[in-house]
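INFO batch 0412 | record 1 of 1 | parsing
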Amino acid sequence: MELLIVLFAIAAMAWILPLVKHGRLIFVAMAVLVIGTVFGPPFFAFDGFIQFSFDRFVWFSTFALAVIAWRLGHVRIPKLTRMDWVVIGIVGWFFVSALRGGPVPTGSSPVARWFFYIMMPAWMYVLARIVDLRSLDIRWLLRGLIVLGVYLAATAALEIAGAHSFVFPSFITDPEIWEFYGRGRGPLMNPAGNGIVMSLSLAAAIVGWMHAGRLGKLTYALLALVLLAGIYATMTRSAWLGAAAVVAVIALIHLPRWVRVLGLASVVIVGGMSVTGFKDELIRMKRDKNLSAADAEDSIKLRPLLAVVAWEMFKDRPIIGHGYGHYFEHNDRFHNNRSYDLPLEHARTYAQHNVLLAILVDTGMVGLGMFAGLLTMLAGIGWQQARKNQGPAEGRWVGLLLLAALAAYLGNGMFHDVMIIPMVHMFLFFIAGLGVTVHQCGLDQRAVEPARNRQRIVGRAATV
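INFO prediction complete | emitting tokens
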């Protein structure tokens, strides 16, 4: 295994160093996202002082690569914004919160959880803040998202079709890993996380469709249909809701007001009628191969029980919470509360199924206030960028992508603790950093000028 790591490192450096030499650290960050999604710890990992995998090796290498890029003059230290300070506050507060209390009954390390789900994404935010972004970078980002999403969609479709021999990597269809088996869980091994990434890809495809010619529109429309099929294959209601929220946010930006009002009214009426007619089918929908329809219905009944437990735990420590990652250390006694006449003990072995409630219970109003404030400010930046009339179109695309990321995150986060789903925060914080950078500094157009000058020179030569 050590030899494999060395060979991988040599191969990675052969590709990464030229990118850094030419100031393209942004592509290294994109590589972290792709490698982390497809070749994360389930693909290959070994345990050291922390668990190492291919994506984490590349992530660690970005520290040295950032220093090299800084020495070469390819990165800059931006003026800190309110969002930057909030991110710093989240990293610091969640770390202090993780240090509180003793070992959790599950044996997991709260500090390790902080490192993988808070610190690593925060560094992705930093990478997006220190690079000089170009319009071409944004185009490549959207293309990369679409390619990644199509791969995930195809994989999800093959999973539910039972064509396991065509699924890559093969660990995705390992029946020994029973959770979510039979659904489109993808290489993240989680259908909600899979749906979030595909929803980002769907947003990229819609953006491409809006700015393409006739043939391009047809191509992007077909890609969007593939992505929608993949999101459906997750067999996860929150993934469907997140994708619908992404489409709705983009429509809210671009459609005329009367169309938005009419569309909203139609969704409410038709959606209400559909839910009334198909409520039982939606609730009792069989999804996992190891989960019966009755089990699926029971999983929905758990959510109000978990909400009650979260409320009681919040009242016990409302300001600072019980400690990030320490939920199972403190939740047991709250399941014995009989004042609600509810079977709270049924939810004893389950973690919170709502990301905001999970943050509130673990880190209190201090942690939730900072995190909710960050999401709110990012939504404002995304809205301003998406509605901006000046500057290159790619700047508006970043705004749309940021809004889509928030919509997919919250759409799924209302029903899952998406904070602990692999790669979700990596994508969210990276796109957030891009949005803040474009909002503060705009896009670097220097790479575009030489191409325009060459076109003028060729035009003059042709005239002569």
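INFO post-check: Residues 196 and 409 are 7 Å apart (CA to CA).
INFO record closed
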